[in-house]
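Thread: quick sanity check before group meeting

JM: Hey all, I'm pulling together slides for Thursday and realized we never actually wrote out the predicted structure for the chain we discussed last week. Dropping the sequence here so it's in one place. If anyone has concerns about the input, flag it before I start.
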Amino acid sequence: MKALLLGAGGLGGPAALSLVAAGVEVTIADPDRVDPTNLSRQIFFGDADVGAPKADTLAHALRERFPLARAQAIDVRFSRDNAAALARGFDLVLDATDNFPTRFLANDVCARLGLPLIHGAALGWLGQVLAIAPGRTPCLRCVFEGEPPVGEVPACAQAGVISPLVGVVGGWMAQAALAIVRDRALGRWANAMRTLDGWSGVERWVPVGRDPLCPACGLAREGNRALDREGAEC
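JM (edit): ok, ran it. Output follows.
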């Protein structure tokens, strides 16, 4: 099993750790460098890593922990120009990014290529994971339709996130990735989004359904303009 992981940060690190430990080959795509503000929640980075490429640093840390781990890095930005080419050849994609344009670009490209996608997000005390199997489960646009207006929802850098929460959500992403590839039934992942309120400790499976008119995975996909959109950094 070969997985493309978009994002080497708070979600990507725990997800990658669980996947390589399970024998999954993981390629990590992230163009960013380690910043001091990352250290509180991105557990594979330390003071000595500040300024280093995130993807390379995470892949190296995984190989040090698991000498037989198949983990490699590509220091590139997942964008409109390269998204389809990057995703081809993998069994699934995990979206551990922190911005809406990249999340929806990943969704649209995976729908077009027929690739399973694991979406994960965390902000403040709240986290969520959605497992997407094209043609079988709702996609991100079925659930959220599209990106919110710019500035309406703050990014992690502005709103912050509770550090332990990203570890839980990243682990859930790895769990969903294994389920979506190995279990045809998918269980509860087939028609629900898993959410966690870290403040109250309440975990929920929120029912979701496919939208037959979804521009990414429904009848309206013929008019899908996903690859005409400008991608964003991860």
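AS: nice. DSSP finds seven helices and eight strands in the chain. The domain at 2-228 is CATH 3.40.50.720 (Rossmann fold).
JM: adding both to the slides.
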